[in-house]
Design goal:
Elements (H helix, E strand, L loop, with lengths): L1 H18 L29 E3 L3 E5 L6 E10 L5 E8 L4 E4 L5 E3 L4 E9 L5 E11 L2 E11 L3 H15 L10 H4 L8 H9 L25 H10 L18 H14 L15
Parallel strand pairs: 2-9
Antiparallel strand pairs: 1-3, 3-7, 4-6, 4-8, 5-7, 8-9
Helix pairs in contact: 5-6
Length: 277
């Protein structure tokens, strides 16, 4: 009897559940958000300017002090792309676009040249070119491997002397080139005799020596006078008699005026952007 009561109770309980209100349907769980560290993000849009190479490397011959590089670039976009400017990482390298700015039509291609100067240097040397375009910046690399020669070693020793004592280039054996050739000369003759030995116009300069025709600063007569009198924060010596140089105060003033005419001053609008080194 006891078993019958239990069975009947169990049957009534099942019946009550079957006839009761319909159980609510629980929706499937929503898709969980994907964390960024696991997401597959779309690739960054590639610059449509395609180069024949982003790095060019050359083995240099003995006595070679300069090397020209040619990069070829193609506009693969369906619209025009503008190359605004190309900036070398230092003054020892000169780079040029065919025109600036260069508005490249779709499918157009052309050369970009760069000349690296490395007199007095040896070993592996790397320089960077930053190309500013309407589609963003691109980086090109120039690399040379320069063999060590007796001339290179001699020039390096002279440079080390100049770093230790800026006035050393006006003394001893060095004076025959840096002082004696220019005595009694003024203007262009003085510049050719005493200045071009370091500031060579053909680009054969030591890396630390600037190209006076391409100084990226606002210059003036006072600018040139300051460097002639003090040498500035460089390895250039002072050319004043007071500091062991060959020029009087009057000659310094006259030569500074000449330099200001030879290398016309730039205003701020003409200065080019300087990339981080």
């Amino acid at each position: 009897m006891k078993h019958l009561i239990i069975a009947t109770s169990f049957w009534l309980t099942l019946t009550a559940f079957a006839e009761g209100p319909e159980t609510a349907v629980i929706p499937p769980p929503k898709e969980q958000p994907v964390h960024l560290d696991h997401a597959v993000l779309p690739a960054a849009t590639a610059n449509p300017l395609v180069w024949d190479a982003m790095v060019k490397e050359v083995a240099i011959k003995p006595m070679q002090t300069t090397n020209q590089f040619i990069f070829w670039v193609t506009n693969t976009a369906k619209t025009n792309v503008v190359l605004q400017h190309i900036q070398p990482s230092c003054g020892c390298t000169v780079a040029k676009l065919p025109k600036e700015p260069w508005n490249m039509a779709p499918g157009e291609f052309g050369p970009v040249s760069a000349v690296m100067n490395f007199p007095g240097l040896s070993g592996k040397i790397e320089k960077m070119l930053t190309v500013y375009t309407s589609e963003g910046q691109q980086i090109l690399w120039l690399k040379v491997n320069v063999p060590l020669t007796a001339t290179t070693e001699s020039r390096r020793q002279n440079m080390n002397k100049a770093i230790a004592d800026k006035q050393s280039v006006l003394k001893g054996d060095c004076a025959s080139c840096h002082v004696e050739k220019g005595r009694g000369k003024t203007g262009e003759e003085l510049f050719a005799a005493d200045c071009t030995i370091c500031h060579q116009p053909d680009g054969h300069r030591a890396e630390v020596v600037p190209n006076l025709a391409n100084i990226n600063k606002v210059t003036s007569k006072e600018y040139w006078k300051y460097y002639l009198e003090t040498g500035g924060p460089t390895v250039m010596p002072s050319f004043t008699v007071a500091k062991g140089g060959p020029l009087s105060a009057e000659e310094i003033d006259t030569f500074a005026e000449f330099l200001n005419k030879k290398f016309p001053p730039k205003d701020k609008s003409q200065l080019k952007p300087v990339s981080a080194r």
